[in-house]
Amino acid sequence: NGRIYARGAIDDKGPTMAAFYALKIVKDMNLPLSKRVRMIIGTDEESDWRCVEHYFKHEEMPTMGFAPDADFPIINAEKGIIDASLLIPHRPNQAEPKAVLVSFQSGLRLNMVPDAAEAVIEGPKKEEIMSSFKDMLRTTDQKGEAAIENGQLILRMYGLSCHAMEPNNGINAGILLCEFLQQTELDDAGKRFVQVVTDKFSGDTRGKKLNIDCEDEISGELTLNVGTLRYKEGQGGELGINIRYPVTAESKVIRDTF
What we know:
This protein folds into two domains: 1-76, no CATH class; 80-257, Alpha-Beta Plaits (2-Layer Sandwich), CATH 3.30.70. The strands form two sheets. The chain has a seven-stranded antiparallel β-sheet with strand order 1-9-8-2-3-5-4. The chain has a two-stranded antiparallel sheet with strand order 6-7. By secondary structure, it is α+β, with helices and mostly antiparallel strands. The chain has helices at residues 9-28, 50-58, 126-139, 173-181, 188-201, 251-257; strands spanning 80-88, 100-106, 116-122, 143-149, 152-158, 215-216, 220-221, 223-232, 236-245.
């Protein structure tokens, strides 16, 4: 009945079909064209555009093109994107820990704000940490749950997912849980992981704490999203970061500063 039902019906299957039918109208009306027109569809956006990379190994790059991917009528510029992995190496504990951060995980993709996070804790003080966590949930608008399972304390925090193009529209569950853990007496290695997260990314989606913030009139402010957070005892941690920088900014300067 003239509708498209699909994941991505708006972004970008609908606009893709609109472009397809526009080409069909031109062809059906036998309108004269002085240039070749081609519709190129890539379906690997979430995995490094391997299909498009393969295509351009065999076909020439268009002289001019556009992507039907945004608000009507037209957007003439798109921010640059840097996907970065920030590794936090493991360092041995210097003293007997009060509690050990066994693992931490949050987020699935760099281009989404994580809406859930989980931390696993062992050792003494589990009940005390669980009690503090539940008190925090009672006295704030934050959502989560805590339980002791098989001798381990499991903390789960829930946030609000959104696209990384504007992280302020979401609530990063991974950062929220690190903010809580930063107030607990964890082992040195676990403490270092949550300290890096809170020191460099808490309350900052513009890269100000990393000195990479910038903006222009064309495309606005740089945005930064911590899309994935991973930690394992004895192995260290890794943060997956999505940076979208203004069209007039230099990516090399941002990378070097980062």
